[in-house]
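Hey, resending since the last one bounced:
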Amino acid sequence: MPSFLVCCTVFVVGAVKIRSKLMSQGASISKRTKHMQLRFFLRQIARPCKLFLTVLLPLILTSFPLGVFSVAALLGWELHNVPVLIAIMMWPLPMQHAYHAYHAMLTVRKGIVLDRPDLPWIRSKISDKADSAELTQSMSQSKNSVSQRNTSTHLTSS
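The structure tokens again:
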């Protein structure tokens, strides 16, 4: 956990120094870049639960027992309970793996929905309103193109 915080701090300090150096030399940022940066930071702030679950919780759950084990070894304490510490350290890993696999599956599924909205097994399982609106719009466009093709095929075959 401390190494993660140190890395984040070094990154933020470096980014601030680079930005201040560029600004002092007269570099300017376009409105689009500022808007993209603002959206990025707002997205990071708006999803603290996701950030906590994906980044901080695994670090907390694994680094605390590992830290206790390391400090105990450095202080020369008896390590007869090492299997207990290792078990405590490892118990959340299957849950973390399942969460990340589920998140990856949702990301892939969202990509499939956006690429192939005409598949019926996808249409029945969409829960996000934004995806549903995009799906409805793309489905109406695909229905229009299919009906136009059918009409033109029917006219040419007659």
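The helical segments are 2-24, 31-46, 48-75, 82-90, 93-115, 120-123, 129-157.

Sorry for the duplicate.
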